[in-house]
Amino acid sequence: MTQVDVLLGLQWGDEGKGKIVDVLSPQYDLIARFQGGPNAGHTLEFDGKKFVLNTIPSGIFNEKTMNLIGNGVVIDPIILKRELDNLKKAGHDPVAAGKLVLARKAHLILPTHQLLDAANEQKMGAGKIGSTLKGIGPTYMDKTGRNGLRVGDTTLPDFAARYAKLVEKHKEILSHYEFEYDLTEKEAAFFEAIEFIKTIPHVDSEHFVNDYLKAGKKVLAEGAQGTLLDVDFGSYPFVTSSNTTTAGACTGLGIAPNKVGDVYGIFKAYCTRVGGGPFPTELDNEVGETLRQVGHEFGATTGRARRCGWIDLPALKYAIMLNGVTELIMMKADVLDGFDTIYACTHYEYNGETIDYMPYDIISIQPKPVLTAIEGWKTDMTKITSIDQIPSQLNAYIAFLEKELEVPIKFLSVGPDRTQTLTLR
Ligand code: GDP
Ligand code: IMO
Ligand code: MG
Q: pTM for the full model?
């Protein structure tokens, strides 16, 4: 019997999960998304082409790999259909190839969930979360509130009536906001997309995944968002509405904790965040702007400018602990190529003390980062093809991080393309 390996982000999302899942997918029989929804934007680049996936697992471009959208995911049928239509135009049809299945128990995002998201954010004004406005929070609220509609419901004869009942409830809530909306077009698109997703096989993800394991096949769970956006352990309330951590892979697919194998924790050589909320190492200055421009730090889903800052080791240690990370993957080292000196936050100054952990309240009392200077490598890393060519300064940075984080760095990514990936260990 095999186990499920997990790959997830250790920061505030956009670490490069899509790229690495694509790189690793030839080693796996099944890639499974287990939480989140189309708030995710996972970018893959190969053969001069670029794809951004929102709901579809990043194993889709590997010929032999099956892809599952697990029960823990929230699915917007309109967005899923659009993603698949766009892939088809680009010559990839995973549905026709029988390479995509949906969990029956995955919840559906309705057009009114998006309206509720937008109405709520509008009301919060300056204190807003900075949601992607994909309806994620309201859909998970209906899931835990036991009102939601699931993929499996679409085949029931009374699906339209169930839909109408939930929409009625949403309209009642919306009437308490000053919020204008017109549902007509969205509703037509929704029902068209529902017919389409009925053509994709529906499975019980718990049996589907466990059958793969029993057959000795290899499974990789693909995280979305990042650990610091986890609804329990992230910078609440500036978080998403799911468990983005390893534990989320168990509930989001239906696997027991003892079925978890390797846990790949992925992080950028610096740090970014998109949306509101605390970010102790943020550089709201020219250095941050340089990171943004060189790293093309603009959201894959919303196009928003990402906030940029230095790497935050207390936050990474916290994420490693929560996830049981067994191997690290460092991304976007090339973005730091031009710096004479880079910095790493090793501790925080907080309430007059020096601490090396994330305190409960980082919203009303912002931790001040204590930074260590590290010599830059001033080398174009994007052209490097073997680990012998890694400059000594970058090797020193890697050794420093491994000592601090106490987990080996297995892969080093030096550019967006599939091929720009070095195996260190
Ligand atoms: P995800 O949400 O974790 O899959 O990450 P995103 O796709 O949102 O953001 C990562 C961005 O960085 C994408 O534009 C990738 O193409 C790009 N990228 C990934 N790895 C590297 C790298 O090593 N170097 C550079 N320069 N870009 C990278
Ligand atoms: P990937 O998978 C970065 C952020 C939003 C907002 C907060 C809540 O590409 O790493 P939501 O839409 O869930 O209501 O937004 O979470 N956020 C992400 N930030 N990458 C993501 O996904 C994100 N998904 C949500 O910006 O601050
Ligand atoms: Mg992303």
A: 0.98
Chain centroid to CA 48: 23
CB 120 less than 6 A from any atom of ligand 2: no
174, two tokens: 């919306």
Determine whether the shortest distance from the Cβ of 41 to ligand 1 is under 6 A. Answer: yes
Q: How far is the CA of 167 from the centre of ligand 1 (A)?
A: 37
Q: What value does the mean pLDDT of the chain take?
A: 97
User: Tell me, what's the pLDDT at 332?
Assistant: 98
Task: Round to whole Å and give the CA distance between 176 and 166.
Answer: 16
CA-CA distance, 357 to 315, in Å (whole number)?
7
CB of residue 282 inside a 6 A radius of ligand 1 = no
Are the beta carbons of 40 and 224 closer than 8 angstroms? yes
φ/ψ region of 225 (left if φ > 0, alpha if ψ in -120 to 50, else beta) reads: left
**In the prediction, which pLDDT does 301 show?**
81
Indicate which residue's Cα is closest to atom 13 of ligand 1.
Answer: 43
Asked whether residue 302 carries a pLDDT value surpassing 90, the answer given is: no
Tens digit of pLDDT for each residue in 313-350?
A: 999 999 999 999 999 999 999 999 999 999 999 999 99
